[in-house]
Amino acid sequence: MFYCLGIMLTFPFVSSAVLNGTCPFVTPRELDLKELDGKWYVAAVVSDMKIQGDCAMILFNHKSDNTTDVSISWISNNTISYYNGSVELTVDSNTTGDLLMVTYTDQSTETFSFLDVEYEHYAVLFACYNNEDGTSSTYELWKLTRTPHIKDDDALKLDRAVANYSLQDSPFIHFNNTENTCKVSGGTFLNPSSLIMTSAAAITLFRRLY
């Protein structure tokens, strides 16, 4: 489910992409949800989520009961918009790697493979679904970094992970993640009554981003 706080400006929407062929066979990485915990910046994305604006972030919150929440948020003109949900790991039946299954608050789900990850620096997420025509597929790609500015070495590794599956020409939308664009001023108030999905834990999760 999608939520918005503030006045929304108009920006191009992110969209998923179509491959002329079925989904590529990928070898996902093994994952550690504890290491995944914390804030990630979305450097670039191909997705059917209606993400728009300047700064975009993902927060994984691994809790003491061994469950993990997730919040995907983006900011434009001091406006915060977001999706919330939970994540769990499943085993890829074709490899020894892990799959990250995200369940959003509207109960829709998405399953991601990590094409590459260095928990202190960057991650590349990939999701793909074969279309009914049997000759094409629809996919998403997310490039994540731990810092607003991409380090040159990390950028090369992100590009290499994408190119390994011939996805380097994907129609990425890039975000202008900086300390300024990712900052919400004190004048923006997160009103708990506006969070229809809400629980005290969900509000705490969201506040960790800002």
UniProtKB/TrEMBL annotation:
<feature type="domain" description="Lipocalin/cytosolic fatty-acid binding">
    <location>
        <begin position="38"/>
        <end position="176"/>
    </location>
</feature>
<keyword id="KW-0732">Signal</keyword>
<dbReference type="GO" id="GO:0005737">
    <property type="term" value="C:cytoplasm"/>
</dbReference>
<dbReference type="GO" id="GO:0000302">
    <property type="term" value="P:response to reactive oxygen species"/>
</dbReference>
<dbReference type="Pfam" id="PF00061">
    <property type="entry name" value="Lipocalin"/>
</dbReference>
<dbReference type="InterPro" id="IPR012674">
    <property type="entry name" value="Calycin"/>
</dbReference>
<dbReference type="GO" id="GO:0006629">
    <property type="term" value="P:lipid metabolic process"/>
</dbReference>
<protein>
    <submittedName>
        <fullName>Insecticyanin-A-like</fullName>
    </submittedName>
</protein>
<feature type="signal peptide">
    <location>
        <begin position="1"/>
        <end position="16"/>
    </location>
</feature>
<dbReference type="InterPro" id="IPR000566">
    <property type="entry name" value="Lipocln_cytosolic_FA-bd_dom"/>
</dbReference>
